[in-house]
Specification:
The complex is a heterotrimer of chains A (about 270), B (about 280) and C (about 400). Chain A has one domain: MetI-like (MetI-like fold), CATH 1.10.3720. Helix content of chain A is about 75%, strand content about 0%. Chain A is built from twelve helices and no strands. In chain A, helix 1 crosses helix 12, helix 7 packs across helix 9 and helix 9 runs antiparallel to helix 12. The longest helix of chain A has 30 residues. Chain B is mainly α and about 280 residues long. Helix content of chain B is about 80%, strand content about 0%. Chain B contains eleven helices and no strands. In chain B, helix 3 crosses helix 6, helix 4 crosses helix 6 and helix 6 crosses helix 8. The termini of chain B are far apart. By secondary structure, chain C is of the alpha+beta class. Chain C folds into two domains: about 220 residues, 3-Layer(aba) Sandwich (Rossmann fold), CATH 3.40.50.300; about 120 residues, Nucleic acid-binding proteins (OB fold (Dihydrolipoamide Acetyltransferase, E2P), Beta Barrel), CATH 2.40.50.140. The chains are: A mainly alpha (about 270), B mainly alpha (about 280), C alpha+beta (about 400). Chains in contact: A-B, A-C, B-C. Chains A and B meet through helix 1, helix 3, helix 4, helix 5 and helix 6 of A and helix 1, helix 3, helix 4, helix 5 and helix 6 of B.
Chain lengths: ~270, ~280, ~400
Amino acid sequence: MRNKTLAAPYLVWMAIFTVIPLGIVFYFAFTDGTGAFTLANIDNIGNYLPIFVKSVWLALVSSIICLIIGYPVAYYIAGRSHRGQRFLYMLVMLPMCISFLLRTMAWVALLDDTGILNGFITALGMKPLPLIRTNAAVVLGMVYNYLPYMIMPLYTVIMKIDPRLVEAAQDLGCSNPQVFRRVVFPLSVPGIVSGFTMVFVPAVSTFYISQKLGSSGTTLIGDVIESQFKTAYNPNLGAALSLVLMLLVLICIGVMNRFSGDGEVATV
Amino acid sequence: MKTFNKVFTVVVLLFLYVPMIVLGAASLNAGTDPAVWKGLTLFNYGELFRDGVLLPLLLNSVIVAVISSMLATILGTMASLGIHAMGPRMKRTVMGVTNIPLTNPEIVTGVSMALLFAFIGTLLKISNVLGFVTLLIAHITFNLPYVILSVTPKLSQMDPDLREAALDLGCTSGQAFFKVVIHEIMPGIISGALMSFTMSLDDFVISYFVYGPNFVTLPVEIYNYTKKPLQPKIYALFTLMFLVILLMMVLMNLLEARDDRRQSLARRALAGRRERAAE
Amino acid sequence: MSKELIRLVGCTMAFDNEIVLNDINLYINDREFLTLLGPSGCGKTTTLRLIAGFLTPTGGDVLFDGVRINDVPPHKRKVNTVFQRYALFPHLDVYENVAFGLRIAKLPEKEIDERVTEMLEIVSLRGFENRKVTQLSGGQQQRVAIARALVNRPKVLLLDEPLGALDLRLRKDMQQELKRIQQALGITFIYVTHDQEEALAMSDTVVVMDKGRIQQIGHPEDIYNEPKNAFVADFIGESNILDGVMPEDYAVKFFGRRFKCVDAGFAKNEPVDVVIRPEDIDIVPPDDGHLCGTVTSVTFKGVHYDTIVDFHGFKWLIQTTELHPVGSYIGILLTPDDIHIMHKSEYSGLFGDYSSYSAEYDEINDPDIYPEDISEEVSETSSEGEAAKDEE
């Protein structure tokens, strides 16, 4: 059909700006400041194990919460008329288009010790609650920022389910809960896998949310990497940590693909 | 169960928009602390327009977004055409590579590109390699997958006979593309371009690692700001941007809805006409 | 004596001010093979869905065994449906698809296995138990759909144009297969199709529908030989339909000639529609014929020639095994049996002249009429879908 070579400029671009940089990360991870080969960076990673664990844990919790919150919403939207679907989809997408930095700052304003929520609480005569700089605040920030990434693929998959399948299930004796359990939910699994991945990956690697809504106790792996590059200036360690992070993400995707069954993970 | 879903969805939507309300209110707040209401004012909006720092930064963001999305759209569309012609194995490899920037955490992408530029910098003996060009390159790189994932499905869904019909009627390959194919995939191209633009405009993490001091984008500067209390005019800027995008999306929605209604009315009118004509 | 199983009383169905079914009155007996026949958009699928329970009539009642079931949801009705595009569950294999209804009914595992195996045997799919349904051919998927429905031993099986996606020879085989299964199991089949040959071949009773109304109900032979109005006469087989007048019983006048016929019971000098089937007409030398005309076109169809003859400006279709070349002047002979009389109706004048075979062809040159690019059956179901969704 069309000439394959049209893709050539793109492939060259990707080779230079996507594949090679990953190789460079690899290189930096295994060298020290002088360029000599060393495993010191990898050893150093051991120090950060607790932080890795915490990052994964918080990301996992956030992803699960996003799934629990996002599923009913996606299901509801998929059941609307065409116009309703479009409208609601737009409403869900809209926040994503606008500065997530500022939206996170808004949560700071809401959760701060002298913030809006505490303003209400003190007005009611109670003592201010320590809402910010907690694990919970970080999870809240993650859920808030990444919820649309869960709703979108779920909605896309659910609305594609052939309505005749629902009718067939009813025809064969299923009450509505049974239809959901035996037909709709199993068929929505690819969406769950997709959504979970799209939330987990950014959640496990974020640094901004943990900085603003967390404290020193909630330093995440993203924070460490950022500081290696911007303040501590140890790109080798940063590269090593990045490598581990990438590995983590690949493992997560691999596990998710198992659940998806036919090995296809829908993206965007 | 249905009412539960409905109510739940409404609650979740409210939850999603709470920060907008907070920031919107903050933009109208006479005080600087969003948590402390000091009275209604449009002062911040005035300040915004008098400001000589924020608006140029916004302009920078827009420039990068426009250029990178345009270039990504062209390069990405070409790539989609090429990919469409590939055999399954090659297609899978290429799509795998395309997915890398999407599945990779942004921080890794940012870091890896920063290292690449540092490497090139030492190679070519340039100090301060980071600047507008590196920023642009990074933006194009993460925009490309969005374009490809928008356009490739449209290509697969297109009736392959259309292109052959054009060739049959005398078009060269190029003409067939510009006269026929491009119209079929245009929705994909546009949505890819729009997505790229939006992603670019709001990008923070990747830009943070590859920007240079001479060309700063708005999100990066806002990050640097957030080490001190935020100036209220930033809230004004945010609220305005939010309203603009909201308006655009509502408009798009209305247009699509009108299109739908027109189609269903037309369908019904035909049925009526046929009946009358048969008499 | 057959028992009445299902009765539709005055059923009406309206979507968004569009009336899709208008006063449908119908009863269906036990062990009957009944077909709802009509063109796209006539309401036959809607009627089926009313019986299945996916729709509630806006007016009228649906009775099952004498009990009103308008508000009974589909999963509680003792009917099962074979869907047009099969609607097999893609995440389950053949065995689990067929067993689906039985599992919902919480039957013991042993019984499920027995019944599924038996049913797969009946539809000739033994050995396919563990196949993924997405890897089956159309014909195989169709049989899984039938097995899945029948394994539940419903009193009534509803079939929505199940053979539409199969090619011609397979379709003919499946028609025989379905008839055989229906008679062996003794279940009522309610079948929907737009293919009149299919309907005539399989059914005990045919219900001809158009524009949301029942046009005629009867045995296939009756429908064919004694259509009630021009629509039925034209839809079933080919017909020449002419204007005529009945001066008295057993006599009809058309084309200026008086013919003996076998129908009676019309008013004196009532204007009527006269139906003459193309295969009933004999071609004879012009001097021996009742009427004379010129052949304007001949098409060889293998079994016979489609010969179009012009009589005084009106084009007749005659099917004959001899070739009468274009331009020849011929006569036709009609026996009283060949002439069938019908009352005039809203359909009079719309059909019967063979200037063209179809209504669409006549409209080709008319710029005010746009051909429909979506089949009405699709828009019928999609408008139902929209209506159903908006109801939530």
